[in-house]
Amino acid sequence: MLKKKTLALTLAAALAVPAALAIPAVAAGNDTTPAAPAATTSESVLTTVAAPYPATVRTTTSASAAPVVYGTGSTVSVTVKAATGTPTGYVKVKVGTKTFTKGLTSGKATLSLGKLNKGTYSASVTYTPTSGSEFKGSSTAVAVKVTAGKTTVKIANTSIAKGKAPAVYVKASRDGKATVTITGPNGFKVTKIIAVKGGKLAKAAFTSKVRASGTYKVSVKFTPTSTNYSGSTAAASVRVR
Question: Quick check: pTM over 0.90?
């Protein structure tokens, strides 16, 4: 009797369905069928990216710069041409350590370089096309010339009389130095260098006295302090009786 009971329990345990695998019971009168597990699907989305247009059109960059006087801003005019189409993008002009950039309009651009010191500069010009366009980049070089600014000097007054030491008054447009020279009869010659402030009178006083009558010539050579300006001269004659 004990063996039969043990065998029955063992058989029941073997036929038991694990809870995780058990199918829910359907209530009487209910036609609902348990839903099957949702199917998992994987879809691939194809994205098409347009490749950049190959840069196949060659371009030619040209530039010009008119000479200017010191104190006036310099400009560079740039033109970019192509066999077909109108180039787009921007140009870059480099002068020394300074770089200037501007976009093209109808293939052209004018760049202002500001006020440069006196001298001749070699400026590099580089054209960079719009990203993805059919145009190729190109470059060139242009000379930018800045000439010296002008100065003026004049003899404002003289004091030359027989038996007295002469004096000359000068005025210049810029700061600098004036070399004043007086020559006259009997080999008379005196020279003096004086400092000059722009726009103000400066006096050149001599110690040698005028001994003879006749015509005395006064010459002034002005040298500006700044090398951005050129020098200037003035002359006058004085009759001593």
Answer: no
